[in-house]
Predict the structure.
Amino acid sequence: MNSMILHVDMDAFYASVEQRDRPELAGKAVIVGGDPDRRGVVSAASYEARRFGVHSAMPSAMARRLCPHGVFLRPRIDHYAAVSRVIREVFGRYTPLVEPLSLDEAFLDVGGSEGLFGPAPEIGRRIKREIRDELQLVASVGVAPNKFLAKIASDLEKPDGFVVVEPDAVQAFLDPLPVSRLWGVGKVGGRSLERLGVRTIGQLRKLPVEVLASKFGSMGEHLWRLARGIDQRPVVPDHQAKSISHETTFAVDVADREVLRAWLLELVEQVARRLRRHALRARTVELKVRFPDFRTITRSQTLPEPTNVTAELWQAATAILDARLPRPCPPVRLLGFGTSGLDTSGQVQRQLFDEPARQRQGQLDAATDAIQTRFGIGAIRRGSQRNSR
């Protein structure tokens, strides 16, 4: 608890970028996602749309029924990635210890920066202000002694939130909160805890760890630690990481495999960009799935050689999704994609028969990355893979 951690989370990021770029959309219900007529999925919804019950991972057709006057837009992932890079440049003014979680959120360890810029809350306020002034976007910020607490804090007063958890006030902060605020607790898990008479984190904290472990296995021990505000994970920048991953927790459990494929593609693309940005290649890919009953499974595959080619990572990810998950697959609470066995050598083993195709895919990735860096626009997109979105 010596360092203070910031969690910076952009509010309704994709939709907010669209509203910023098209002023006529200000104040309107903006829904970013796939075509409602083609099994599309909502990627993001403005707060105006959320008032009608629209949320991410919802089928676009359902979103249109709930919010028929909404403005539906196709995602411009490349453009959002370019905006995200500018946001990371703001972070870099204050600390090199930045751990991206996705395009719209990151952890920052500012413990070593307070001598230059003042206390952590002041750094958080400055970052919020600079993002608003320079990008005309709104971020919510949580400031706390560890990553778990900072992430909860950033979410409490959205949109435009700013919450500070002092080291001596951790339990006072946590105890009144509902157990649904704990990582991994969804609706089904919440009902399981409610049967034990547990509705708040404070009530959970009073249960012996043996009781939680007997009911929920290793997840019970995890919840026992979180209820006490215990999280010893450091902030790890990409270039120091032994693995790079992204995951998303759905607002509503997802049972449609095509919806899962659509979200998996986005996770793969984000991981691939981060690998290429730091000249890394991954030898192992891993799929992480959490179900509503707290059960979490991981499935991994070792590749013939390290890669950062999006198409190769996507092929491995979909192979795991299609062949190694339970059938029928229960509804999914969380989906994650990660890579490990990172190689910084830059050496690539040549393969005799598939080398031309691999070169084309690598050139496609390089061209896309260059366009993002130079122009910041979504001029190129993987059209055939985006149809499900």
